[in-house]
């Protein structure tokens, strides 16, 4: 496009009528390219390829405008049509998926006939309009000397839009904005408005809720009767899985807890406070070695659960 | 300060350039941008390294300057992989589409004033179109195609997601970018970049239009997909984003496009807001400082400041979440720039139709009304005394005023007895029993 800019800058700003060499060269390059883009759009099998061919046509048209001393129109064509509108097309096509293909079943009766008639009619209109333009209307140069006060194309365009045709321009923008708002309303009308809770609100809500909402639960697919860490896991044959036994819990001797259990059970316990805090099995007094003489058979939960398999271990530890 | 040329002067100056001069300019700009890209990669790695308390590349060449050259050569010799599911033609076109517009935008950037090259009077600018600013916008809107098509043509999910993000991102931020440019164009009265620079000879637009400048600076980062807005290539979410499937020279083209885009937009920001090639204030008092080849130094100095800010942002800010990013664009930048534009346009009209005294009176009345309205706004309610939720639960949490209850008598006796009998004690644990087994 830098070459095109050079051509546009180098093209002599003629008042109209004759076509410069640079302009004809540009036309004979860009015309076939634009035409190829149009044909490619119609015949491409893939929807995204089709869109890309159309982009090519639009780019060629934009450059043609620039060559014909209408740089503002040319770049607006590229920015608006190629940059925004076709980008939205490509966006939607990508969302639909790369393998989506058109249905070839004709749903409207007589569609092909109507399309053919209307297409031929449109073609006829276009040819007539172009022929009229070529014969009747004389070309007017859009170069630097154009427009009121001879300030050039861009300024003249601005004067036209914002002074002479302000009301139609404003009406068109109002129509477009109404259409955009309408599309938004139709999109969001069916949805229930719900305030999105932030991270902090969710935490507060969770902490205010019942206990079951925090802390981890058993994973899915687990049959569990309790969530306690003290509950050992069972192997498929029904025996206790050694790896599921907690070291800390197993290191606490049953006898150490006896007194606490009695406390909790008896009426004369500490202030009748029967809750989890009354169990002081691991209350940090360092008195873990209550009964040195106790055998392995009256030991911890672990011993009682898997007595047979761990008898030898207990003996080895007793000997230590 | 030398008198500025009238609007459109640069255009006529460049229009009669002979072909060889245009060719030289094109070559110099192309080669210069390649060199700047190599420099920029090194610069970014060194600066980020310094920010992260490490040296950065310092081994190849003086100060490690040749490191990016070595990396580039290595990249060129890597295997060029094309995924089986890729769309062949589009996969090839995409990197080209992303890199070419980045270079093209440099055609309209004024690098310096009128100079003489081999006896030919010309300006340090490839071409000066009457719609120069639109060229930059058009180039960035074409450049998005490269990214979007790269993601689509790769035929794999991560690039597709990256390119969808990128399309939405660039379209959104292009609006804010364009809106912030309008204020500059209103004041300069021209779309030509050379005229905009000339219009800033009395004062840079960064002082006159600070809001526009801020919006431009933010959307510039969004437009180039750089941190903290580098969502299309978010490594932690999308592997590499749109260029995940690319390798070798095609990847190098994307890399080049990213860095050239950075440099391009920095140069545009310099042109629009920082007075282009004009010397900064204390230096601008020296006569002759804005003539000849010296302004190239000012221009690239200012551009380098923007590039440093790019690197600084990358070294400082974490990546934004996608919804935060979109909210910033649509709910902050665009409304603020629309309001600012209204304000600027109103002021322009008032300046044209009212005298200074009248403006001051109207402004004073408006200010009084604003202050009065501000007084009418009720004070903000004081926050809750205790926003922390009280945990209502029977979970065994010790109370703050916990008094340890006395040990029962029976246990005290048992403890004393055991201490006398067996100091070593004996416990059985699962781990210990496993160790004990043969």
TrEMBL record, chain A:
Topology versus the membrane: Multi-pass membrane protein
Subcellular location: Cell membrane
Basic and acidic residues composition-biased segments: 274-320
Keywords: Cell membrane, Membrane, NAD, Quinone, Transmembrane, Transmembrane helix
Pfam families, sorted: Oxidored_q3
Protein function: NDH-1 shuttles electrons from NADH, via FMN and iron-sulfur (Fe-S) centers, to quinones in the respiratory chain. Couples the redox reaction to proton translocation (for every two electrons transferred, four hydrogen ions are translocated across the cytoplasmic membrane), and thus conserves the redox energy in a proton gradient.
Protein name (Swiss-Prot/TrEMBL): NADH-quinone oxidoreductase subunit J
Source species: Actinomycetospora straminea
Automatic annotation (TrEMBL), chain B:
Catalytic activities: a quinone + NADH + 5 H(+)(in) = a quinol + NAD(+) + 4 H(+)(out)
Stretches the record annotates as Disordered: 381-438
Annotated signal peptide: none
Pfam families the record matches: NADHdh
Lipid bilayer topology: Multi-pass membrane protein
Top EC class of this enzyme: translocase
Residue intervals passing through the bilayer: 20-43, 89-109, 129-154, 175-198, 204-222, 251-273, 293-312, 332-350, 356-377
Compartments in which it is found: Cell membrane; Membrane
Swiss-Prot/TrEMBL keywords: Cell membrane, Membrane, NAD, Quinone, Translocase, Transmembrane, Transmembrane helix, Ubiquinone
Keyword Transmembrane: yes
EC identifiers of the protein: 7.1.1.-
Protein family according to the UniProt entry: Belongs to the complex I subunit 1 family.
Subunit comment: NDH-1 is composed of 14 different subunits. Subunits NuoA, H, J, K, L, M, N constitute the membrane sector of the complex.
Role this protein plays: NDH-1 shuttles electrons from NADH, via FMN and iron-sulfur (Fe-S) centers, to quinones in the respiratory chain. The immediate electron acceptor for the enzyme in this species is believed to be ubiquinone. Couples the redox reaction to proton translocation (for every two electrons transferred, four hydrogen ions are translocated across the cytoplasmic membrane), and thus conserves the redox energy in a proton gradient. This subunit may bind ubiquinone.
Listed name of the protein: NADH-quinone oxidoreductase subunit H
Species: Actinomycetospora straminea
């Amino acid at each position: 496009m830098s070459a095109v800019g050079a051509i546009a800058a180098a093209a002599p700003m003629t008042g109209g009528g004759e076509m410069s060499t640079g302009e004809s060269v540009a036309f004979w390059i860009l015309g076939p390219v634009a035409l190829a883009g149009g044909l490619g759009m119609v015949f491409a099998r893939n929807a995204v390829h089709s869109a890309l061919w159309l982009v090519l046509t639009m780019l060629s048209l934009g450059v043609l405008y620039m060559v014909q001393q209408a740089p503002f129109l040319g770049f607006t064509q590229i920015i608006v049509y190629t940059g925004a509108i076709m980008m939205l097309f490509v966006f939607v096509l990508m969302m639909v998926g790369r393998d989506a293909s058109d249905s070839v079943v004709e749903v409207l009766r007589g569609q092909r006939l109507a399309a053919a008639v209307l297409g031929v009619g449109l073609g006829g209109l276009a040819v007539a309009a172009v022929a009229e333009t070529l014969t009747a209307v004389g070309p007017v140069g859009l170069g630097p000397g154009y427009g009121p006060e001879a300030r050039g194309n861009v300024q003249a365009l601005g004067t036209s839009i914002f002074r002479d045709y302000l009301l139609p321009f404003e009406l068109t923008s109002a129509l477009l904005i109404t259409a955009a708002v309408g599309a938004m309303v139709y999109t969001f009308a069916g949805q229930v408005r719900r305030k999105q809770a932030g991270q902090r609100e969710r935490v507060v809500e969770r902490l205010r809720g019942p206990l079951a909402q925090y802390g981890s639960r058993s994973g899915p697919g687990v049959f569990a009767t309790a969530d306690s860490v003290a509950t050992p896991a069972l192997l498929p044959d029904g025996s206790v899985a050694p790896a599921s036994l907690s070291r800390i819990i197993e290191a606490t001797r049953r006898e150490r807890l006896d007194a606490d259990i009695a406390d909790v059970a008896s009426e004369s316990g500490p202030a009748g406070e029967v809750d989890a805090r009354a169990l002081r099995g691991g209350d940090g007094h360092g008195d873990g070695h209550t009964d040195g003489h106790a055998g392995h058979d009256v030991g911890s939960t672990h011993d009682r659960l898997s007595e047979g398999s761990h008898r030898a271990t207990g003996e080895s530890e007793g000997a230590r | 300060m030398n008198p500025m040329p009238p609007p459109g002067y640069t255009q006529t100056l460049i229009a009669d350039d002979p072909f060889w001069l245009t060719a030289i300019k094109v070559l110099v700009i192309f080669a210069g941008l390649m060199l700047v890209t190599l420099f920029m990669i090194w610069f970014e790695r060194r600066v980020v390294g310094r920010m992260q308390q490490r040296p950065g590349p310092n081994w190849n060449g003086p100060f490690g300057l040749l490191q990016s050259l070595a990396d580039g050569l290595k990249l060129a010799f890597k295997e060029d992989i094309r995924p089986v599911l890729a769309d062949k033609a589009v996969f090839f076109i995409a990197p080209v589409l992303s890199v070419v517009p980045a270079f093209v935008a440099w055609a309209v950037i004024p690098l310096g004033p009128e100079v003489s090259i081999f006896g030919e009077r010309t300006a340090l600018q490839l071409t000066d179109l009457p719609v120069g600013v639109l060229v930059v916008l058009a180039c960035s809107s074409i450049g998005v195609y490269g990214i979007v098509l790269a993601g689509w043509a790769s035929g794999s999910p991560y690039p597709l997601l990256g390119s969808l993000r990128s399309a939405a991102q660039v379209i959104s931020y292009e609006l804010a970018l364009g809106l912030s440019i309008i204020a500059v164009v209103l004041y300069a009265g021209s779309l030509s970049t050379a005229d905009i620079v000339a219009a800033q000879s009395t004062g840079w637009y960064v002082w006159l239009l600070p809001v526009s400048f801020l919006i431009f600076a933010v959307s510039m980062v969004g437009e180039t997909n750089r941190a903290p807005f580098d969502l299309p290539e978010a490594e932690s979410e999308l592997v590499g984003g749109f260029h995940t499937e690319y390798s070798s020279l095609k990847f190098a083209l994307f890399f080049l496009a990213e860095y050239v885009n950075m440099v391009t937009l920095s140069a545009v920001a310099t042109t629009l807001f920082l007075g282009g090639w004009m010397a900064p204030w204390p230096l601008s008092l020296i006569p002759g400082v804005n003539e000849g080849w010296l302004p190239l130094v000012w221009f690239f100095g200012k551009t380098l400041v923007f590039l440093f800010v790019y690197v600084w942002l990358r070294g400082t800010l974490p990546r934004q979440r996608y919804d935060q990013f979109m909210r910033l664009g649509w709910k902050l930048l665009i409304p603020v720039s629309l309001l600012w534009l209204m304000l600027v346009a109103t002021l322009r009209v008032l300046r044209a139709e009212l005298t200074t005294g009248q403006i001051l009176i109207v402004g004073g009345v408006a200010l009084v009304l604003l202050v009065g309205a501000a007084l009418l706004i009720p004070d903000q309610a004081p926050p809750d005394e205790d926003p922390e939720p009280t945990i209502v639960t029977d979970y065994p949490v010790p109370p703050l005023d916990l008094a340890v209850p006395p040990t029962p008598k029976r246990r005290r006796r048992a403890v004393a007895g055991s201490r006398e009998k067996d100091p070593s004690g004996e416990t059985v644990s699962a781990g210990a029993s496993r160790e004990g087994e043969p």
